Amino acid sequence: MNSSTVHAYHAKNTVKLQLKESGPGSQIPFASLVTSTPELRDKHRFSLHPLLFNNVLQNMYLGQADFSKVHTVYYGRRIIESTYLPGQFTLDYHVDPEDPEVFAQRSLATQPENYPKLHPRTRYYTEQEISQVHKKWRENMLPIVLVLHGLSGGSHEQNIRSIVNHLEGTANVAVLNSRGCARSKITTPTLFSGLHTDDLRQTVQDLRSLFPDRQLHLVGVSLGGLILSNYLAEESDKSLVTSAFTVGAPWNLQSDMEALTRSVAGRYMFEPYIRKILLRVLKSNIQGLKANPDFDEQEFLDLYKNATHVSQIDDRYTCREAGLPSASTYYMAASPLIRIFKIKTPMVILNSLDDPFLSCNYPIAEVQRNPYLYMASTDKGAHYAYVDPKGDMWYSPVIKKYIESWKDIKNDRPDDGGFTVKQTKFKDVIDLY
């Protein structure tokens, strides 16, 4: 039997959430709400696929298996012009299925000129169709869940589709695609990094403006979880988000990069895989990147052929996207660990202790000192695979149950008893965001 166990960590007194029914006992501690989902309780045991008995097999299955016939969700894509950074990004709304012939006809009719063809069951929506989606959301009164994908992924990824599919009927769901991902087109030489939180910020502000009284939850996978965490820290007690849930999010990029090639599998499989992904993102967006006068196409082609480690790509491109001078300074600045005490939104953190992409030096001590956080670390699960005996992602129905557990909670700021953390000595200012 291939099983895993949950190890839960949280502050002794987590923030109190206001129940919709007023009166005595009208508050519930965040940890109590989380543990109303049995799968997130300390010492909970769950089964993974019996043939995928280690982290290598789990990740290989997620990357190589045919998921084309499962979680066949439909998306309507919206192109959004950024009000923070020049350029545009895309938001994919989970929408009702369409007849294949009708879908094909509408896809042709709404496809913008010189834009990439989208993944199966995804098409561009007109402004009128987007208004109809918003109208449906206003009428059904369900909470809203905004999902953030991992490095270079998007709404089409099997794990994202699994999450979205399981949330059917529980929440209104949209997936925020990072610039240049999920066959989106960049119109300015700006991609994304772990510090690029403004597209998320704008999307949250827009959704909160459209649905001011609705619960708004964030779900972030891998890099999406890192971006989500940095964003919540930046917003701190001004957060417009009800709660968050991360899966396989990095917390210390410097430590993670050092650990990536320590194992044989990391050195010969996982590091080359990440390197390939980053280079593919850059190459597929090269026409947009060339608008930057500092972009040297020949230098990129040389790096494309000769790069031997992902840090070389981050040192040349990612750090500059983030406005930093080197890969190492980017890794330190983009790590949510350094701003974890500024997170003042209830958040569940799911990480596996056999994650081959991360160092697994998770912020347990910090979680136990921040009453907004609840960590569920598991013995097995790989990065964000967690492939169960049915071939699905174990965490997808868990996220569904977690979102459902909020149904009796008011959409108010939690009571944190005045929680704050301040630096009292050696107060040199390091402006990280």
Automatic annotation (TrEMBL):
Domain AB hydrolase-1, first and last residues per copy: 143-253
Active site (record annotation): S222, D355, H383
GO molecular function terms listed in the Swiss-Prot or TrEMBL record: acetylesterase activity; monoacylglycerol lipase activity
InterPro entries reported for this sequence: AB_hydrolase_1, AB_hydrolase_4_CS, AB_hydrolase_4_sf, AB_hydrolase_fold, ABHD4
GO BP annotation list: medium-chain fatty acid biosynthetic process; medium-chain fatty acid catabolic process
Record key words, sorted: Hydrolase, Serine esterase
SUPFAM superfamilies registered for this protein in UniProt: alpha/beta-Hydrolases
Similarity annotation: Belongs to the AB hydrolase superfamily. AB hydrolase 4 family.
Protein name: AB hydrolase-1 domain-containing protein
Species classification: Eukaryota, Fungi, Dikarya, Ascomycota, Saccharomycotina
